[in-house]
Amino acid sequence: MPESKNKSARANSISHIFQKLNPKNRRRKINQDIRGEGNHIECNDRFLRSTRFEIWGNNNRIEIGDGCQLKDVTFHIEGDDHLIQIGNNVAFNIAGSIWFEDHNGTLTIGDESTFENVHLAVTEPHSTLTIGKDCMFSYDIDVRVGDSHSVIVNEHNKRTNYAENISFGDHVWVASHCVILKGSIIGSNSIIGTRSVVTKSFPQEGVVVAGNPAKIIKEGINWKRERIYDKSKF
């Protein structure tokens, strides 16, 4: 195929990515820098404000569910065949960044989950980050499945720090200033305390984990978004 036709086909594949967006949303500073072929963004009738899509690769897919509100969120994808699935009524209320590298990474966010300001990083082949339904993430939170760089053991000259998947159950509350590192599993109905550094799995449901490194400090709990008062104390 002549070069001019190749460029035309490539341009058409990019130009149609946003065709399903509500026309009103197109005026809400949705920016794009998309280089490659076969990339697809599926979102319809969403509230997207100051959202940026940076996609440098091929066959990447972003699916944003109904009723989502994304404010000042950057999607940065380098590589091929990545998948981002955001459920219904998910909100990024202040800002956020979703960062992908290499190929075949997956991020899944369940319905009704909310975020203030977070960085979610999936940076190695075939790694996954899963966030359940009705989770609540505060601000200044860093979640990353890998270390981004290689640590080499001198004895055999091989890398030792490959990525490991991260999973949050349903209804998990992550307080501010937390870091959640590779291989972490957090059970449903749990809480991660402020300034915690999570480096291992806590699959038990209904626990509070806190500290650096994080450990279980309380069991048998649950939580609610609304503040509940005992009227007899007032």
Describe this structure in words.
The chain has a single domain, classed as Hexapeptide repeat proteins (UDP N-Acetylglucosamine Acyltransferase, domain 1), CATH 2.160.10.10. The protein is built from two helices and 23 strands. The strands form three sheets. Strands 1, 3, 4, 6, 7, 9, 11, 13, 17, 18, 20, 21, 22 and 23 form a 14-stranded mixed sheet that branches. It has a seven-stranded parallel sheet with strand order 2-5-8-10-12-16-19, with no helix packed on it. The protein is flat and about 65 Å long.
Q: How much β-strand is present in the residues?
A: 35-45%
Q: Which structural class should the secondary elements be placed in? A: mainly beta
What is the fold-level CATH name, i.e. the topology?
Answer: UDP N-Acetylglucosamine Acyltransferase, domain 1
What is the CATH homology-level superfamily? Hexapeptide repeat proteins
Strand tally is 23
| Envelope shape | flat
Helical percentage:
under 10%
The secondary-structure element order is HHEEEEEEEEEEEEEEEEEEEEEEE
Mean pLDDT: 89
Largest sheet: number of strands, sense, barrel closure: 14 strands, mixed
Terminal CA distance reads: 78 Å
Ranges with pLDDT <50 over ≥5 residues? 1-16
Number of helices: 2
Class in CATH? Mainly Beta
The radius of gyration computed from the alpha-carbon positions, rounded to a whole number of angstroms, is: 20 Å
CATH architecture: 3 Solenoid
Number of domains: 1
Compact description:
This protein is mostly beta strands and 234 residues long. The chain has two helices and 23 strands.
